[in-house]
Every structure is written in structure tokens, then in C-alpha cells.
Design goal:
This protein folds into two domains: about 20-65, no CATH class; about 70-155, OB fold (Dihydrolipoamide Acetyltransferase, E2P) (Beta Barrel). Helix content is about 10%, strand content about 30%. The chain is built from two helices and eight strands. The strands form two sheets. The protein has a five-stranded antiparallel β-sheet with strand order 6-5-4-7-8. Strands 2-1-3 form a three-stranded antiparallel β-sheet, covered by helices on one side. It is globular.
């Protein structure tokens, strides 16, 4: 009988985001080292996750606004045990929700790491605090997708 563990190989490494038409620009900007958030081109409201229609004014016109990349840890968790085998080697690691400083209603999920290319377990979970200031850093995954990770402003 095949188990979920049998479907993952060591090459599978970590989960990669699923890129759809609405979110594709987010990932394209990330690959350039830019954190951008979708905004309504008519009413100006920011929205995340990206979607075709503004939930405020129902316009289909959108644009992508450059963010500062600064934020605060809004919430975090240290998974015990890791849910997928590929993550077990990096335990204990963190999963955070970051509230963007220049868009407080926008929150992104990611990981706090010691440096852009550092492993997910590079920051001791005891150092994390809700409200801790963070700055975005980008890292390219083995599949070529670039994802935002977060660095503590005061390591």
C-alpha cells in the first residue's frame, strides 16, 4: 500500500507555492526581489491574496504596489511534529504570519530565518515574539520559485 511518505522523495524538499493567474505577478516581482501587493486601480484598496475583482468596489482593474518589506510578526507557530517528512530535518522551525508595516490589513505567511538563504531552523523559536519587527528577504527554492522569508530587525 502506498503511503503519503512514499510519494515524497528527498528531492521534493520543501513545499512550493501554487502559482495561479491572479497571483503570478506576486511571484514574478518576488523573483526580482520586490515585495508587491495587488491594489484596486479604481478605489486604491490593497488586497491579498490576489484576486480578479476588488472586494470593496467590485472593479476588475488592478495594479501592483511596491511595499517597504517591513512588518511585524502577527502570529507564529512551531509545528510539533512537522507535518511533512521533508520538514522533519529542519525542525524545530517556525511558521509566521507577518503584518506589513505599510499595509496593516495585509498579512503574509512565511518563515523567520537568520539570513536570506538560511535553513528554516536557523532562528531559535525562543527568539520569536508577537510584534517583533521583521524585514523581507527573498530566497529561490530548488524548483526556481522565489519566496519571501523574514529576518528579525534586531537579531
Amino acid at each position: 500500500m502506498t503511503t503519503p511518505d512514499d510519494l515524497l522523495s528527498p528531492v521534493d524538499d520543501l513545499l512550493s507555492p501554487v502559482v495561479d493567474d491572479d497571483g503570478a505577478p506576486f511571484w514574478e516581482y518576488a523573483a526580482r526581489g520586490e515585495l508587491r501587493v495587488q491594489a484596486c486601480a479604481d478605489c486604491g484598496e490593497l488586497r491579498f491574496p490576489p484576486r480578479p475583482c476588488c472586494p470593496h468596489c467590485h472593479s476588475f482593474a488592478s495594479e501592483w504596489r511596491l511595499m517597504s518589506g517591513k512588518g511585524v510578526v502577527w502570529s507564529y507557530v512551531v509545528p510539533h511534529p512537522p507535518l511533512l517528512p521533508a520538514y522533519a530535518a529542519q525542525a524545530p522551525y517556525n511558521a509566521v504570519i507577518v503584518e506589513l508595516a505599510d499595509a496593516p490589513r495585509i498579512r503574509l505567511v512565511g518563515n523567520v530565518v537568520a539570513a536570506a538563504g538560511a535553513a528554516l531552523d536557523s532562528v531559535d523559536p525562543a527568539r520569536l515574539r508577537i510584534g517583533a519587527k521583521v524585514q523581507v528577504a527573498f530566497v529561490e527554492l530548488p524548483d526556481g520559485t522565489t519566496v519571501p522569508r523574514w529576518l528579525l530587525e534586531r537579531p
